[in-house]
Amino acid sequence: MKENLIQQKSFEFALKSIDLYKHLLSRNEFILSKQFFRSATSIGANVIEASAGISKKEFVAKMSIASKEARECYYWLELIEASNFSEIRISELKEESQRLIRILTAIVKTCQTNF
User: Fold this and answer.
1) Are 69 and 42 in contact, with CB atoms under 8 Å apart?
2) Which CATH number, 1.20.1440.60, 3.40.50.10810, 3.20.20.70, 3.30.160.150, labels domain 5-113?
3) Per-domain residue ranges for the chain?
């Protein structure tokens, strides 16, 4: 099976997000951590769903949702960082979420152009 960059990147991002989620839970932060974790893991889930789409329209819709989830995830990372809930360096996760946003946006734009 051919390697899929966005599937790989979104999966790796979700794995790294688990570490931050566990850390936040250990600090008794339950609300922001859950919101962040849901959006972080939803990116890859939507990418996987997109690859199983039965039409180009469905593919674009799922990739668009993945892009929105990546943007939401970035928001939660900004909020967690600004609120000082974690001493873990969040900048790496923020950079990775920005990369995912750029990749997903390019995928959506390319697909919409080729309709």
Assistant:
1) yes
2) 1.20.1440.60
3) 5-113
Compute, in degrees rounded to 10, the torsion defined by CA atoms 56, 110, 62, 34: 170
Measured at the CA of 26, the angle between CA 20 and CA 30, to 5 degrees, comes to: 80
62-86 pLDDT per residue, tens: 999 999 999 999 999 999 999 988 8
Find the length of the chain.
115
Encoded tokens for 8: 């790989």
User: What are the pLDDT digits (tens) for 19-36?
Assistant: 999 999 999 999 999 999
Helices (H), the chain: 5-26, 31-51, 56-83, 91-113
Whole-number Å distance between alpha carbons of 6 and 110: 14
